[in-house]
Amino acid sequence: MKKKILVTRWIFPEIIERLAASCVVDFHDQDTALPPETLADRLADKDGAITFLTDRIDGTVLAHAKRLKVVSNVAVGYNNFDLDALTRAGVMATNTPDVLTETTADTVWALLLASARRVVAADKWVRAGNWKGWQFHDPWYGQDVHHATLGILGMGRIGRAVARRASGFAMRVLYHNRHRLPPESEAGAQWVAFDELLAQSDFLVVMIPYSPAVHHLIDVEAFARMKPTAHLINVARGGIVDEAALIEALQHNRIAGAALDVFENEPHVDPRFFALENVVLTPHIGSSTRATRFAMASLAADNLLAALAGRRPPNLLNPEVLSS
Ligand code: GLV
Ligand code: GLV
Q1: N or C: the chain end with fewer CB closer than 10 Å?
Q2: Which residues belong to any copy of the D-isomer specific 2-hydroxyacid dehydrogenase NAD-binding domain (predicted)?
């Protein structure tokens, strides 16, 4: 008998076709999140699911999904999963690392450069018809990126790809992880303590995965330790940064700027950001090129199909499930 699967939102037709060759596919063919109750209802008779970062999979949902064997997230981050609850329920969980590393590192640089050189505010100013003539001492002085200090909080795959790009800008690169990495994994960067990273970075890039342990890690005290000329770039998860504290820091120029691709309560963006010129805002587009989104969807299908066929999925997050 064919396995039954749920695909919780729009995905490429080629991927649906591939899944439909061996599964009965319940496809929510719209690019919106299913309400939690609908998600739970539609999972109740499924063997597997392709999920997205907007789908919360926790004990409540799992209590109704007795046949479920695998949830395959189309994202590298998986804080939408209660991984312990999945493991207890014997459900395999998978994500899509590697395929989005380089694209997301590009996004970090797009935001970093935009923040440093005030690209978005300058664009708005030109569109508003404000440009009356070229000036040498113009209102658009930005900050030099070359030879500055780049600080990477979370030297994982994406952090290393960000660090590699920094060599073209002749930057000094610092990083902080809880544990120092072996030299071959440092991508030419130097480990420093968290407080040192805050104090020395001209550009602080947040690249750690979200978990409750790092909720509001970048808070009022962190902003107080940063240079007044520093820029914060967050392409990881909104909850790592205390947004109220960031808004306060930007309003009072305690730091020079920020560029945010992620927010605490997406898609809600605190309207106080809209009044600020020293912040760049993008709608969670870190992995957003067609090629990379397609690669993520393909890898998610690989993970799901492997698990349903009784093989070990390439990106299994909770291998304990296999040994129990
Ligand atoms: C996107 O945020 C992802 O985790 O892939
Ligand atoms: C995070 O998961 C990364 O790949 O850096």
Answers
A1: N
A2: 110-286
Residue 109 phi, psi (nearest 5): -70, -35
Q: Does the predicted model carry a pTM greater than 0.80?
A: yes
- Phi/psi of residue 204, nearest 5 degrees: -105, 115
Number of helices and strands in the chain (H, E): 12, 12
| Angle formed at CA 28 by CA 26 and CA 31, multiple of 5 degrees | 155
Q: Is 49 helix (H, G, I), strand (E, B) or coil?
A: strand
Domain match, 277 and 305 both = no
Summarised one tens digit per residue, pLDDT across range 163-207 is 999 999 999 999 999 999 999 999 999 999 999 999 999 999 999
Q: Is the ipTM of this complex over 0.90?
A: no
Tokens read off for 160: 């290393």
Is residue 120 domain-shared with residue 184, that is, in the same domain?
Answer: yes
Query: Which residues does 195 contact at the CB level (< 8 Å), separation at least 6?
Result: 225
Number of CB atoms found within 10 A of residue 210's CB: 19
> Do 157 and 258 fall into the same domain?
yes
| Residues 264 and 240 sit within 8 Å (Cβ to Cβ) | no
Identify whether 196 is a catalytic site residue. Answer: no
> Cis (ω within 30 of 0) for the bond into 267?
yes
Which residue among 100, 206, 207, 208 is best mutated to probe the pocket of ligand 1, counting the most ligand atoms within 8 A of its Cβ? 100
Tell me the residue range of the domain where 219 lies.
Answer: 101-281
Helix (H/G/I), strand (E/B), else coil: 281: strand
